[in-house]
Amino acid sequence: MELRFPDPQGLADLAAFVRRAKQADDDGAIRLQASGATLAAYVAVLSGSGLLGEGTVLGLRAMALAAPADLDVTVPLAAILDRVARDAGDSLSVPPTTVRMPWAALSPPRGGWERVGSIDSEDVNAVARQGIAEIAEGAPADAGGHAVTALRRQVWGRPTPTTPPVPAGGAFAAYVLGFSLPGTEMTVWAHGRWTRLSTPHGHVLIR
């Protein structure tokens, strides 16, 4: 299967998105969901827990395709970068190796969202930087994996001091994925258990 973009910049944008996601989770994966001439690319910045995946934080980029495609696969981030290194131009050969990730079974709603407000990107970035520093200080090198996981869930699960408030994990995702660029306003949407932060550069979906 091959995904063809309108120009080489489209493939470069996907590669940049994957590289940022890999910084958050080196062993992560990406869900490529193509329908017609649109590609929805999902990555997990924070994994949730339980049957309902509470605490899951996803990043989403929607991209135009030059040729219609019908696809829904989840592949390793590293495999995409390997392909990009080999595939020049405007086309991506989808890696044949797929993976099963619990978060990929969560399908955020496509419609029915209710706008609840907006947040300045600088406020979002400040929350993200503060959380990163708090985790770095509170998780010494000899801390066990369970302790670090518990600290991360505590820090990223609490609400931001913004109006409206959102889970801090959403701010972290927007920051690491490059969605909250200076001067950008993030629109906050709600739908049942889901919260969405939207900017011109991408979306963050919080379960």
Descriptive terms for the model:
single chain; about 210 residues; DNA Polymerase III, Chain A, domain 2; 6-stranded antiparallel sheet; two-stranded antiparallel sheet; about 30% helix; globular; DUF8010
Q: How would you explain this protein's 3D organization?
A:
This protein has 207 residues and is an alpha+beta fold. The chain has 2 domains: 104 residues, DNA Polymerase III, subunit A, domain 2 (DNA Polymerase III, Chain A, domain 2, Roll), CATH 3.10.150; 73 residues, no CATH class. The protein is built from 5 helices and 8 strands; from the N terminus they run βαββαββαααβββ. A hairpin with a 2-residue loop joins β6 and β7. α1 runs antiparallel to α2. The longest helix has 18 residues. The two termini are 31 Å apart. The model has no long low-confidence stretch (mean pLDDT 91).
Q: Strand fraction band?
A: 25-35%
Low-confidence stretches: none
Strands of the widest sheet, in order across it, are 2-3-8-7-6-5
How many strands appear in the DSSP assignment?
A: 8
Shape field: globular
- Name the helix and strand elements from N-terminus to C-terminus, one letter apiece: EHEEHEEHHHEEE
Report the sheet with the most strands, covering strand number, pairing sense and barrel closure: 6 strands, antiparallel
InterPro entries: DUF8010, DUF8185
Domain DUF8010: 2-104
Domain DUF8185: 108-207
